[in-house]
Write a structure and sequence with these properties.
The chain is of the alpha/beta class and 444 residues long. Helices cover 46% and strands 14% of the residues. The two termini are 32 Å apart. The N terminus is likely disordered.
Length: 444
């Protein structure tokens, strides 16, 4: 059975530091940082999306901060909180309408997101239904996500917007955050069989027994079976790549690109599953879980790169995921035996200054969320001491202040991670209180 304790740690870890306390290193006075942050904070009027361009006026100072960056990666401190989701929707609207952003990429299964991609282009269904059925990990039950999908569809339906906005998932297709599902393989094989029946049927015959076992909670494969599965996935990818021109001519470029990407996601999931650690005796977080975490984040970064390729040279993308994925520096978290690499680190190595990372912090949880306490020397506590309820802060501006830059360079606790905030994030978003996301209407 999947380690339920580990799943809970992954889901809410940003607000609970885990069984092993994180040491903040040398304790230093934060007065200089608080004074600097108070003076440099970009106040946010509201996290709620507005209905007119005027409602976005407080976000306009972001234009010189973002500059020409092709990717803005916004982190959330916890899954299932209303305020980060609402602000994401507001920020994306600003980025699209005033900075020409063309897509949003979410921490959700990439194979499933084709239905979202088609819906915002005018496909069938309702926003609530499409989000509920195709956003991973229960994220489709959040009304804020359905509202995002509906806004993109309405934007695209306006004939005055010639460049249409698209939506993608970037994650593996997983059961319970860790175990791969057969969805990516199923979608790739369905396409291949439609466009080229003989190799499609041959590869399905090889892969079907594994796909049936992947539908179980934690399938057990022998080393020989793992090798055979990996080889069959490689064969599938090779078949699609060799016949690229013929398959595009027979279907469409979009259909072909999604099929290839689904096959690649299947390979990514296979690689992650190979290093999935067993549950430790007595439960808890597996010390070697960092290997699975690194494999997942490397896959997410590769998938963001694929999204950029689909958007073309003028495409610009907002990536939305947990802080732990967005950060672009190593961090200590939970009980892993070593630090983990994140999607943001991989993206930084690829994109350099074409990436802007924004980490999110909160002072407290409202009713419905587990209460937590801030360490007095944490970055979060220092942000609280500004006295401002919600704001953005460009950490790169601290380079002109030696004391503040030194403070940000130290390893400190931020939203449950021990990291160097000045290296992990270009900007910070602070929200005073987190409340539960709004529940979407249940399925009819």
């Amino acid at each position: 059975m999947i380690n339920k304790i580990w799943l809970a740690a992954v889901a809410v870890g940003a607000l609970t530091i885990g069984a092993r306390p994180l040491a903040a290193g040398t304790q230093e006075d934060s007065v200089s940082f608080v004074r600097w942050a108070t003076a440099h904070a970009m106040s946010i009027q509201t996290v709620e999306p507005g209905s007119s361009i005027a409602d976005l006026s407080d976000l306009r100072p972001l234009k010189p901060v973002i500059g020409a960056a092709r990717v803005v990666a916004l982190g959330e401190p916890a899954h299932g909180a209303h305020e980060p989701l609402a602000f994401r929707n507001r920020l994306f609207r600003y980025l699209v309408e005033e900075l020409g952003f063309t897509a949003i990429a979410l921490e959700s299964g990439l194979p499933e997101s084709r239905a979202l991609f088609d819906f915002v282009a005018g496909g069938p269904g309702t926003a609530e239904q499409v989000a509920r059925e195709n956003l991973s990990f229960g994220f489709g039950t959040f009304q804020e996500n359905a509202e995002l999908v509906q806004w993109i569809r309405e934007y695209n339906a306006d004939a005055s917007h010639p460049r249409k906005v698209r939506i993608y998932g970037i994650d593996l297709s997983l059961v319970g955050w860790m175990v791969p599902t057969p969805i990516a393989l199923e979608k790739a094989l369905t396409y291949l069989t439609r466009v080229d029946a003989v190799p499609g049927q041959r590869l399905r015959a090889v892969l079907q027994p594994y796909m049936e076992r992947l539908s179980t909670e934690v399938p057990a494969f022998s080393p020989a079976e793992r090798d055979a599965l990996s080889a069959a996935i490689d064969d599938l990818i090779g078949q699609l790549e060799r016949e690229r021109m013929a398959y595009i001519a027979a279907t469409s470029k979009d259909d072909y690109e999604w099929a290839c990407c689904n096959a690649v996601v299947a390979r990514q999931a296979d690689r992650a599953f190979r290093v999935l650690p067993p549950q430790p005796p007595g439960g808890g977080v597996p010390p070697s879980g960092w290997q699975w975490s690194d494999a997942r984040d490397a896959a997410m970064a590769e998938n963001v790169h694929w999204v950029l390729a689909q958007e073309g040279p003028t495409g610009r993308v907002l990536v939305f995921a947990h802080n732990g994925h967005v950060k672009s520096a190593p961090a200590e978290k939970q009980d892993f035996e070593r630090t983990t690499n994140s999607m943001g680190q991989y993206l930084r190595s690829i994109l350099g200054d074409d990436l802007i990372t924004i980490g999110s912090s909160a002072a407290r949880n409202g009713p419905g969320f587990r209460a937590f306490s801030l360490g007095p020397d944490s970055v979060d506590a220092a942000l609280v001491r500004t006295g401002l309820p919600q704001f953005l802060l460009d950490l790169r501006a601290s380079r002109d202040d030696r004391d503040v830059a030194a403070w940000l360079a130290k390893r400190r606790v931020f939203a449950g991670y021990l990291l160097s905030p000045g290296s992990a994030f270009d900007m910070l978003l602070f929200i005073d209180t987190l409340n539960p996301a709004h529940a979407a209407p249940p399925a009819p």
